[in-house]
Design goal:
CATH topology of the largest domain: Rossmann fold
Largest sheet: 5 strands, parallel
Number of strands: 7
Radius of gyration: 32 Å
Distance between the termini: 79 Å
Structural class: alpha/beta
Order of helices and strands: HHHEHEHEHEHHEHEHHEHHHHHHHHH
Length: about 450
């Protein structure tokens, strides 16, 4: 599949396709990657592009940058889409590249959506990248650390493209409105100041969404009134729903839940509600959110407020019972409770200390006085002998009651772990009351 990048766009092509920049001077945004004197820009301008992977959300210029490289390189430029290409296509392209190399000609291979190639397909590319038969340019919206083989990744340079700024999107819209050759210039279409602000805001840094929405809204403006003025109302009607960069299996999924959990842990109810709303409106599984809050209720609130676990489990049951969209009520209820609850991570850290001893020390038999004794033989061997039944010991009142001297308390740990302490109460909420009692119990 030879590249079509050198061909002029059809007048019937979408506005976003017609307005693709043709040179680095037309390229808007990504100054950290291709700005003046940046390494990649210098490499492109000197026709010395290495194998690279362009990673970023949709509409940030990955394919456009590949097209610009195609126009500026002296090498044969070949394009494949990982959506439709198979191993046979790869082998054909690689064989052609090897043949060109025998005549001293270079090949640049652009692989769009490279994350969709499986391991076998990526392995098929590797030896040709390694021996220099092709210079590979991969474009992906997914984290290459997870989606690209480590061997291929180590032979490529990764460049991160970020969502465009509002000023970048605004500049792209202004250019499309002024360009009479490829854009809407001379068509009678204008974008009101309020419409421009609404479109820039709703595009979320995605140039493709901004241009395609502008084109749709412009068509509606001309058809409705003939004035061609694109208003905020037309923008909202054309867009229908704000562009959101969220993939339930991708980085946005993990990054957003991470922000949510850290906001809960940091006791920020406002940020917690914001990230919760972002996830719900993006279509995240509400039970996934509930499960993470159940974990946090024990991991980060713990005994500082044991009711938190009850609230989290109730929220999980409620959202499962009620469903969406009303399920946001119990989710928000739980998020606010967890965010404002006192915090303690003593549950996890205490368990971790106990686990260290399980893994690092000899696992001695259970002490005789703690063993189960259901038969006469076991009782004859001493099982359960000298066990002090806690409820029969008045001095064993919890927390507020008195305690006998520590040496008189029954031992529950194996002999080799006597005196090892794992639970360390926190200082917030209910758990603060346990510290004094624990100190007295341990002597």
């Amino acid at each position: 599949m030879e590249s079509l990048f050198g061909q002029a766009e059809s007048p019937k092509a979408p506005l976003a396709a017609r307005m693709r920049p043709r040179s680095l001077d037309e390229f808007v945004g990504q100054a950290a990657v291709v700005g003046k004197d940046r390494a990649l820009r210098v490499a492109i301008e000197s026709d010395a592009v290495p194998s690279l992977i362009l990673w970023g959300p949709p509409g940030t210029g990955k394919t456009t940058l590949a097209e610009i490289i195609a126009r500026m390189t002296g090498a044969t430029f070949t394009s494949l889409s990982a959506v439709s290409a198979g191993v046979a296509d790869l082998r054909r392209v690689m064989n052609e590249a090897v043949q060109r190399r025998t005549f001293g000609k270079r090949t640049v291979l652009f692989i769009d959506e490279i994350h969709r190639f499986n391991k076998a397909q990526q392995d098929a590319v590797l030896p040709y990248v390694e021996n220099g038969s092709v210079t590979m340019i991969g474009a992906t919206t997914e984290n290459p650390s997870f989606e690209v083989n480590s061997a291929l990744l180590s032979r490529s340079r990764v460049f991160v493209l970020k969502p465009l700024s509002d000023s970048d999107v605004g500049a792209i819209l202004d250019r499309a409105l002024a360009d009479s050759e490829r854009g809407l210039g001379g068509s009678g279409v204008t974008l009101s100041a309020e419409g421009r602000d609404a479109l820039v805001n709703a595009s979320n840094g995605d140039a493709r969404v901004a241009l395609n929405t502008l084109e749709f809204a412009a068509t509606a403006a001309l058809a409705k009134s003939g004035s061609g003025v694109v208003t905020p109302e037309l923008v909202a009607d054309a867009l229908q729903r704000r562009a959101r960069s969220y993939d339930k299996g991708g980085d946005a999924h993990y990054d957003t839940i991470s922000a949510f959990i850290k906001s809960l842990r940091g006791s920020d109810p406002d940020a917690s509600l914001y990230w919760l709303a972002r996830m719900i409106e993006s279509g995240e599984d509400p039970l996934f959110i509930a499960r993470r809050m159940v974990i946090l209720a024990s991991e980060d609130v713990g005994l500082a407020d044991s009711r938190a676990l009850q609230v989290a489990m109730a929220a999980q049951q409620a959202v499962h019972f009620v469903g969406m969209p009303e399920g946001f009520y119990p989710l928000a209820h739980c998020a606010l409770y967890l965010a404002t609850a006192p915090k303690s991570n003593s549950v996890g850290s205490s368990y971790g200390r106990a686990l260290q001893d399980v893994e690092a020390t000899r696992n001695d038999p259970v002490p005789l006085h703690l063993r189960n004794a259901p038969t006469g033989l076991m009782r004859g061997l001493g099982y359960g002998r000298d066990y002090k039944y806690a409820h029969a010991e008045p001095a064993y009142e919890r927390q507020t009651g008195s305690l006998p001297p520590a040496e008189q308390l029954q031992e529950y740990l194996p002999e080799n772990l006597r005196g090892h302490h794992y639970y360390q109460p926190g200082t917030q909420g209910d758990e603060a009351k346990l510290s004094e009692w624990m100190e007295r119990r341990r002597g």
